[in-house]
Amino acid sequence: MSEPEADKSFEALLEYLRQNSGFDFTGYKRPSLMRRVDRRMQTINIQTFEDYLDYLEVHPEEFAHLFDTILINVTSFFRDPPAWEYLAQELIPRILAAKKNSDPIRIWSAGCASGEETYSLAIAFAEALGEDAFRERVKVYASDVDEEALTVARQGTYSANASEPLSAERKERFFERSNSKLVFKSDLRRSIIFGRHDLVHDAPISRLDLLACRNTLMYFNADTQGRILAGFHFALNNEGVLFLGRAELLFTHGDLFSPVDVKHRIFAKIPHANARERWTTTAQFGNSEAINHATRYFRLRDVALDASPVARLVLNANGQIALTTQRLRETFGLTPQDVGRPLQDLEISYRPIELRSLVDQAYADRRTISKSNVERRLPNGETEYYDVSVTPLADNNNGVLGAIVTFQDVTQYRNLQNEIQESNRKLETAYEELQSAHEELETTNEELQSTNEELQTTNEELQSSNEELETMNEELQSTNEELRTINDVLRQRTDDLDTANSFLESILSSLRASAVVLDQNCNILIWNRMAEETWGLRADEVKGTSFFDLDIGLEVTKLKEPILACLASRSSHETMMNARNRRGRAIRCHITINRQESAQGKDRRVVLLMEETDE
């Protein structure tokens, strides 16, 4: 298959996974993702992506094996120790200094795999705060898309090899021993919450002081990384800090995060002060619907700003408040936090006039609906009168974007009108001055941008190479761990087999009778030491030969019929025969013939015991 055809069939496979499994891998980097899928295909001897898609349709249980191969869970306690030392010595004291003694501390470990990194964060904060304060103040959220890895993480139980990076003091302080394993202490474990979370599609956890996402972003392409980082920006407090892995940098996201320590991949959130920037950031980690929503919001805001700055509010198409003026908030007691709330939840929707019916009428008629001399009684007994108008806002296709609701105080109309006109003139003058300054700044920025883009291109190429190398390194580490596990199992089974063989050899050597074991073709498998002493043939001379071909002092051909009969049925046979031993002495030999089967019943064998008697 040609490379374009392979790419096309691979994209079809990813789309099938997204629609049928709930996992969306379309945002992952293609080289490493294709390597992981190809590795699984080789395991089940499938050559093309098209054939593998067909295989998935017939064998739905294959999804689990594929995801185990794709989702690389390589982690350890305090991985990359210099970064953790910086976190403990510099960053955690800075986070605690910005908090009051009773303020809660919220931490998110994104892409936690089997939990070692999450428990490392808990240990670091428990050491800084003390265990009592940690239990009272700290909440650690840990997430991953791999349910099997989360199951391991929730148990908090680790082997000696996994806990090797921990010091003896930390093991004693934060873990309890269970047989040969360590279990994270249950009273501290209650401060940690594990859950499944898809960084690309699920809403982020909010109000965070620290967000650790180490060596996870490097598996995603640039667009998906941008959406995830926008979500991280939304999740962090204004003083929040982002902790990344050593293979991850943020050269192209300087509007979201500023470096605190590039060497250890620590970045601080850049707060966004206005609504436009918050909408833009939110749309980056949403889907196309969120982006369209943000676009409609900006268009709605631009249309609303063309209206006179009187007491007013702007509604979006869903009936939510999108904008309120300062005059309206002062008059009707609204706050900036009411932006985004449904109109029907606020008192202004029915007092001093029922607004919802006016809005519905304005939408239906596609024209401004007005009500004059609406009476409003104040708590001090005074009465104000307003002209209320609802103006629908439409786009170029006559689709409804929302509505402007205006409350005009007609008792002081002329004075208010003069103030509005003066405010408009000042606003226009300020806008012209700002526009002039903006044009000058734009010229300078364009000159700087040319140089900056060249540097960014070089940095992005280096980052891409570094991320690819880190990905391959973790894949090799994962493979080495699997091989180490297989070797341990083989070594144990070899030891068990040696023990069994030694035990069997000791039993056969201790028998006073000649013991011979034949396979189902009557070839000799075992010839014990007593058989060597009695018949004069060594074990290495007879093993693998037919028992009936032996030339010893026993007429073995007379035993052929009972041996074959024993192989055919489960019955045993006993007989007495005259014979001569290796010294030529005539003896009387008691012979017992028994059948023996393997555990699976596939292999049948015959056991002959030949013992000299005095009869």
3D structure, described in words:
The protein has four domains: 3-70, Chemotaxis Receptor Methyltransferase Cher, domain 1; 81-275, Vaccinia Virus protein VP39 (Rossmann fold); 303-499, PAS domain (Beta-Lactamase); 511-613, PAS domain (Beta-Lactamase). With 615 residues, the protein is of the alpha+beta class. Strand 7 (208-213), helix 11 (222-235) and strand 8 (236-244) form a beta-alpha-beta unit. 47% of the residues lie in helices and 21% in strands. The strands form four sheets. A seven-stranded mixed beta sheet has the order 6-2-1-7-8-10-9. Strands 12-11-15-14-13 form a five-stranded antiparallel beta sheet. It has a five-stranded antiparallel beta sheet with strand order 17-16-20-19-18. The chain is built from 19 helices and 20 strands. It is elongated and about 140 Å long. The protein has helices spanning 3-21, 30-43, 49-58, 62-70, 81-97, 116-129, 131-137, 147-155, 168-174, 186-189, 222-235, 275-284, 288-305, 326-332, 355-365, 413-510, 529-535, 539-542, 560-568; strands at residues 105-110, 138-144, 157-158, 175-178, 181-184, 192-196, 208-213, 236-244, 257-261, 266-269, 311-316, 321-324, 369-377, 383-394, 400-409, 514-518, 524-527, 573-580, 586-597, 604-613.
